[in-house]
């Protein structure tokens, strides 16, 4: 048996990724692929430009099939029939054709793709000033696989001119993202005038979403949400935001143009590739297992009838330990979750 050092192994894997296709075949006979397997189709429209839609093999989160928000009249027939039956059984009025509804992946739901350009013709992701009044542009890199197929990195020319290449291929991409709603933490601050000063009470608690349905969306570019530390000022002024959902990047759909295409926008002549990050059904769990409110924190100040900015500025200036303790309490009880493959 041959044993390789992990660095050599990882280098070989990265090399293989650059040489091998990154698309998965679609089985036309109806066979199911892995969870989240994606098929893309192009829909023509009479009076305006057509668009691509993605259909995903049903994936489960905590045993619940993920859904896609769709306009009722554009939803699959299975979705329309299910909603019609549910409304009838619940004795609710019929929904308008333009109402937004949940269509489950196992009902053949689809999501419209929103493309970003990579390589030739792309917009910069950032612009930086350099010495001598210069400007530096940063672009998303073209994956090595597509470079081998003729796609070139975007030009860093400040005038925006691309190289004079007679054989141009364009590349666009769209990210498919899973949203899993989850509880969020908040802090209720109350002040009370007492003998000799003011008492401030901080009562952290949780907002539990009524809707825990996992949903798939299409984003031009997925940006991972990081758990930023909370400062005392953020808590006192309620300026911190606790994301209401955990996200996982399922896949990236690429559209590659033919050489010298008639249009720079993806159409039926462009070839579709899918790079998967997730192949499995998922379990989602919050790091906070019980949503009992954390203990309250109370502070007495000698500031008479202190309210609003005056009180908070006083606390930050004179009682940083208490404010820091409150920030740590909120941070340690945030309900960020993780996804596990099953």
Shape: globular
Which range does the strand content fall in? Answer: 25-35%
Number of helices: 6
Mean pLDDT: 83
Ends: how far apart? 30 Å
Beta-strand segment tally: 19
* Sheet having the most strands: 5 strands, antiparallel
Name the helix and strand elements from N-terminus to C-terminus, one letter apiece: HEEEEEHEEEEEHEEEEHEEEEHHE
Helix content: 10-25%
* Uncertain residue ranges: 23-30
Explained architecture:
With 342 residues, the protein is α+β, with helices and mostly antiparallel strands. Among the domains are: 50 residues, no CATH class; 95 residues, no CATH class. The protein is built from 6 helices and 19 strands. It is globular and about 80 Å long. About 2% of the residues have low confidence.
Q: What structural keywords apply?
A:
6 helices, 342 residues, 5-stranded antiparallel sheet, 3-stranded antiparallel sheet, 19 strands
Write a concise synopsis of the structure shown.
This protein has 342 residues and is of the alpha+beta class.
Give the SSE map.
Layout: H1 6-19, E1 38-43, E2 51-56, E3 60-61, E4 64-65, E5 67-71, H2 77-89, E6 100-104, E7 110-112, E8 116-118, E9 126-130, E10 134-138, H3 144-147, E11 171-181, E12 184-194, E13 197-207, E14 215-219, H4 232-236, E15 245-256, E16 271-276, E17 282-286, E18 297-301, H5 308-318, H6 320-332, E19 337-341
């Amino acid at each position: 048996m041959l044993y390789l050092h992990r660095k050599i192994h990882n280098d070989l894997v990265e090399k293989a990724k650059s040489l091998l296709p990154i698309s998965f075949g679609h089985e036309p006979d109806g066979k199911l692929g892995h969870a989240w397997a994606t098929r893309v189709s192009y829909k023509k429209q009479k009076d305006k430009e057509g668009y691509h839609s993605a259909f995903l093999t049903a994936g489960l989160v905590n045993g619940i099939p993920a859904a896609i928000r769709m306009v009722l009249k554009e939803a699959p027939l299975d979705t329309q029939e299910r909603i019609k039956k549910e409304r009838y059984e619940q004795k609710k009025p019929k929904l308008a054709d333009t109402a937004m509804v949940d269509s489950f992946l196992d009902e053949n739901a689809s999501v419209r793709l929103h493309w970003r350009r990579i390589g030739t013709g792309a917009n910069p992701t950032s612009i930086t000033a350099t010495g001598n009044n210069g400007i530096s542009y940063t672009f998303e890199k073209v994956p090595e696989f597509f470079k081998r197929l003729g796609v070139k990195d975007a030009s860093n020319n400040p005038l925006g001119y691309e190289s004079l290449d007679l054989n141009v291929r364009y590349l666009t991409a769209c990210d498919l993202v899973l949203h899993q709603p989850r509880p969020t933490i908040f802090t209720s601050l109350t002040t009370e005038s007492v003998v000799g000063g003011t008492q401030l009470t901080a009562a952290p608690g949780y907002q539990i979403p009524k809707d825990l349905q996992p949903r798939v969306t299409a984003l031009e570019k997925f940006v991972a949400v990081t758990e930023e530390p909370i400062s005392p000022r953020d808590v006192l002024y309620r300026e911190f935001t606790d994301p209401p959902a955990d996200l996982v990047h399922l896949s990236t759909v690429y559209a590659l143009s033919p050489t010298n295409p008639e249009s720079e926008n993806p159409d039926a002549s462009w070839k579709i590739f899918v790079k998967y990050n997730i192949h499995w059904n998922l379990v989602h769990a919050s790091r906070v297992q019980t949503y009992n409110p954390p203990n309250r924190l109370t502070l007495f100040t000698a500031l008479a009838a202190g309210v609003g900015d005056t009180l908070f500025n006083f606390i930050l200036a004179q009682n940083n330990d208490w404010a820091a303790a409150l920030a740590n309490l909120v941070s340690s009880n945030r309900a960020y979750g993780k996804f596990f493959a099953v």
